[in-house]
From TrEMBL:
Source taxon at top rank: Bacteria
UniProt gene name: gldC
Protein name, entry field: Gliding motility protein GldC
InterPro entries: Motility-assoc_prot_GldC
Source organism phylogeny: Bacteria, Pseudomonadati, Bacteroidota, Flavobacteriia, Flavobacteriales
Any single Pfam family the record assigns to this protein: GldC-like
Amino acid sequence: MSKNTFTSEIKINVELDENRIPENLSWTAEDGGVREAQAKAVLLSIWDNQQKETLRIDLWTKDMPVDEMKVFFHQTLVALADTYQRATQDDKMADTMRDFTDFFAEKLNLKA
């Protein structure tokens, strides 16, 4: 019995200035209905199971406002806590991570 497989592609386009600093970022995920959407920052982590390490691509445009970067990081940390909980079922550590995200937001005055 053969197994049906599907392929889905996600593209990230990076436009660089003469110093190779990102000026524009866009991404496409046609299966998700996204086509050349603009972005100001991208954080991508990939697990290399051969080397047992995380590979990272961290990009942001030179006009990404610092206040938006702080919100971006906070929202990313919250999402990581949620993903960690779904992936491991470790509610206690996920809650600890969320405690940190609340502390992070408080210290950066992100919560009203």
